[in-house]
Design brief:
Radius of gyration: 18 Å
Order of helices and strands: HEEEEEEEEHEEEEEEEHH
Structural class: alpha+beta
Helix content: 10-25%
Number of domains: 2
Distance between the termini: 41 Å
Largest sheet: 4 strands, antiparallel
Shape: globular
Number of strands: 15
Amino acid sequence: MKTSTKGDNMDNVVDLFTGKPYSSLADNRFIRLAPELDGLEMLYSNEANPEKLFSLKILCWGLRANGDVVGLVPWLDDIVACTDIRDPLNGKWEGYFDPGIDEVFYEAPIHKIVELETAADYYELICEDDSDIVQEIPDTIGTHAVFSDNGFRSLALTEIISWRLHHDGTLCGLAADESKVKSTPVLPGDDCLYPVQSRKEFRYYFQHHIANRLKAEDPEALAAISMLVEDSY
């Protein structure tokens, strides 16, 4: 996919919130996604457990407009590049991990780079608005969205069906509005899907193993939620 930039040199225009030139932000936006289907994971660490490494399944690989390819994971209330993760415990990326061969690596797999670059060239789209949908991929790692409108005194969890990439590079998780489901299974692109980040009660994304522990009211999982709530105030 190739897009053109209209207008004058944007290096002189700075984003008010990030302090970065708009040209830099445009270069970093995602233009194509490739689902991770072989179980590769992200490794990360945090200050609370300096001697440990934790792993999280990679959702997909993303191609930026500048040609970089990085893994993406649902992280707190967003989906972010593995290399950019941040959390209340100062979590940081430590590398990628292939559990099948017990190998740590630090660059995107070459087969994913080739897949993304080839697809971007093949699906050359012309978009008029930042909100135009470029791509929608299924969720393959059991992501759930957590909702709460009462300070986490009660929680509601719902499965993420798919992830949508917009022309401006933003990504959002989509869940099914049960009142609008006309047929099952609900698949990517279904009219009943809505972006969970559009709901004011949306709080976090969790992969299925944590979501299931929350559904079972596991004390450790609930304690972790409490820690996130405290750090958000």
